[in-house]
Structure formats: C-alpha cells, structure tokens
Amino acid sequence: MRIRWWQSIRWRLALGSVLVSLVATSLLTLAALFAIVHFYTIDQQGRLESAAASMAQAIGEHYEQNDNATLQPSARLAQAARSSYPSPALTATTATVRYQGDDYLLFVFNHQNKPVFPVPGRLTSKTQAQSLLKRLAYVLQHPADQNEISDLRNAVFQAQEGTIVSGEIGTPYLKVLPRDFVVEPIKVAGQGTPIGVMVMLPRSAANNTLPPFVETVGRAVLFASLIVALLAALAAIFFSRTIMRPLAKLTRATRKMASGDYQAQVQTNAQGELGELASTFNEMAAQLRRDVEELRKQEVWRRELLMSITHDLATPLTAIAGLGEALADGVNQSREDYEATGRIIVRETLRLRRLVKDLHMMTKVEAGALHPQRKSLRLAALVDEVLAVLTPEFERVQVEPVNAIPYTLPPIEADSDMLTRVFSNLCDNALHYTPAGGTVTIEARQEGAELIVSVTDTGPGIPPDALPRIFERFFRADSARQSMTGGSGLGLAIVRAIIEAHDGRVWAENAPEGGARLLFALPLATHVDQLTTRPLSLSNTPTAPLA
After folding, report:
1. In the chain, what are the domains?
2. pLDDT digits (tens, 9 = 90+) for 84-109
3. CA–CA separation, 77 vs 95, rounded Å?
C-alpha cells in the first residue's frame, strides 16, 4: 500500500514540529517585545527624571545669575529658561528640547501657574505641544475641571510647594507604554519656596505615539524572530518529538534560571540519559537556589556592616583628629584644658576599641568559632565585678546601677568572660536610653531548670513592633538616635550569640512600671554538688545589691 507524502509520519511529525516551533517563536517574540517595552519604560523614566532635574537646576542657576532688578519675576524666569536651552528659538516655537538623543516637551510656569516659556501664542499652531500647553494653562486656572490631564495639573500644584512629582497623563499607548511626565520645582539658593515649576514629558507621550526606539527595536525583533522561526522549522524536521520535548523543557527551565527564577524545575518522564540529565538539573537548581539565598543574605549583611562601621568610625576619628589638632596648635592653655582634652581622646579611643571588639566577636560568630569555656559561677558576684568596672560610666550619666540578684541562687555552668561581655553590653545599651536620675536594675530568678536574668532600665521603653527584632544585627528601634548614642549596632546581637552558644535564649519586653527589660535564660548546672570539689571561677562570697 502506497502512502501519500501527507500521510507519512515523518512529514506529520515535521509539520507538527514546525507548527510548534512557530508558536514557540511567536511567544518568545511577544515576551521579547514586552521585555523591551518594560525595560525601555524603566530607562525612559530614569532619563526623564535626570533631564528634568538638570534643566530645572540650569534654569534656577540662570535665574540667580540674572540680577537685573528692572525685570519682573516672570520675565526674569522666562529669560532664565530661554538661556538654559541649547536651541531657545526652536524651543520657543515647538516647546521641544533634545536631551541625550530624545525629544521632550518642556513648559515653564511661574509661581502663579501661568506659562512663561514658551508662551502659547508663539508655538506652532495646530500642534500637540500648543494644544497640551493651552489645556494645561486652562485647567491650572480652573481647578474644578476634571479631564485626562488632571493628574498633571495636580502635580504642578504639588511642585509649587517644592515637591518633585512624576506620573502619567491619560491612558498608556496601546495600554502598554505609559505616558510619563515629571514636574520639577525651580528653586534658587536661599529661597524656601520655588520661583516656578517645569513640566517635562517625552514628545511621544504627548503625541500618544510609539517611541522611535521601541518602534525600531520592535521591527528588528520581528525580523530576527522570523529568521529564528525558519531555522527552528528546519531543525524540527530532522529531530523527533520524543527527543525534543524533554530538551525543550530543560531549555525553558534554564532560561527561567538565567532570568533569576531559581525555583525552576524540569518535570519529565524521560528515561535514560535525558531523564538523568533532568534529575541532575533539578538538583543543581535546588543547590543554586540555596547558594543564591545565602549570598543575598551575606550581601545584605555586608552592606549593613559597611554603612554602620563607616558611620561609627567617623565620629570618634573626627573627634580625635580635631582634639589632636587643637593640642598641636596650642589652643589649650591650662592644665585643666589639657586634661579635659586627654579624657575625651581616651574616651573616643575606647569607643573605637569596643567597635573593633564587637567586629571580632561577630566574626567569630559568623565563622562558628564561638565555643564557651564552661565553669561553675555565681551570677551575683559576676555582676558585682561588671558594675564595679562600669561605675565611671554610670556616674558620668548620673544613672544608679542596682544588683538585685540574690546570692542564694544556684550556680550555672558558663563562660565567665562571655557573660561579662553580655552584662556589659546590656548595661551599655540601658545607659544609652536611661535619663539622668534613673536606674538600671539587674535581677535573676530560678524557673525550673533555668535561671532567668533581666536588665531593666527606666527609659522610654521599646516600641511593641520592635520587640521581636531588638536582638538583630544593626537593628535600632529609633534610628534617629544612632548619632547620639553611638555604638556599632552589634551589642545586642552579640548578647544573643553568646547566650545561644550557652544553650540559652533571649527576648525583650517592656516593664509594667515603664522602661525596657531585656531578658535571657540559662540552664542551671547539672551537678550542683560538684561545687564542693571544683572551685568556682568567681568568688562564692555572698554579695549584697549595689546601691
């Protein structure tokens, strides 16, 4: 039996493959066009804002340089605008200015919302620029009217108050390309209110047409897509569908991954080498997803670290440099001045040293090298030693420390140096937020197999939404106080790392009587009777609360 060519499986498969190839190419073309439109819109918005800012600044500078007292403000503003354009004659008749290869319409209004340059009467008649300027000038004088340029009118009103406003006029072209505009206030140094505003938008947005760049690139993409479709059709003739199907899935998943979608997976029932390839790809994608998430976290941490360290290093270094120059220049004449200057330099140097210690500690935490050397100790004696060291700081800010830990509490197994760091950081944090005349109280109580320790101040407390994040690195409940309180922003994060290294936990709350309360829980020593045979790291002598 003779089989016609159209009945051949080969041609059926080829025609089917060609059809699939054409469909796939069409989808890719649409995706490419949408991608071009999307990124062009983002780039266009950025260039529009840059052009508007540059032109508004140039007008303001020319206005300031023109000190002709005989000119009215509006005429002076118009002359400044005319002087700012590369081709003022062309702009005066077409309202068009070219910036970085693109054409923009540009209108300047005075503080009374009246157009000063270009003026509607000098624009070329029956053009979109003249029509838009007349409509805008009308709605500015009649705020009650509502039309498609109402948003542009409202933006002019907001810009007259000193705000840079961007938005869209009317409906997007083909419901895809937005018609962006930017309204910039024109300011002069030394004046609080703008002397006028400048409206700027692409000419294609005003004419509601396709931008030339998108049109040109779109044609190139369509032409390239036709070539790709032809090549895909020729290739589909020579390969079977059973081979192409899993490979196509793998290709799509790879493209998703290349675009940043690391959730991409290849779902196929193919056996043999293709099935093994798909399985290996899925494993690679999962591992890559985990690696990328970790890299993102590390990048965020690195940026936060750089910003925080830069800020925290600037203050003490500036103070030390300034005081050092004062000493070198002989500004201080008396011994008292020299002593005061020396104390400030020492304090700022100690601040730098604390910052370096914090960074060293966080480096150990990140490297997993924080290993407590556990010994039996009593918290009351440890806190006494900490407060004795911090007494000058408490006296300087006129805050009273109170050690309310009972000496009868059972001992714990912990690293004394690390716990000293914990109490120092908690007291330092409390001192930053406790007003003069306040108190910082350290208490402890036993709850089951844990020892609950709290440090309570009499400051303003912590906002409720900040309580869960208070122990995060660089987190500040009130970032505006960073310049006043100083610190690296790592103190409480170090506290959490140390306590967790001791198998404990930390949390924060607001005290009912007012102020913040930072707490941590540590497990008690498992063998209390060992205290009789193993010496404590600190004195076992009972201690009374510090007054």
Report:
1. 24-213 (3.30.450.20), 260-367 (1.10.287), 370-532 (3.30.565.10)
2. 877 766 666 777 887 777 888 888 99
3. 16
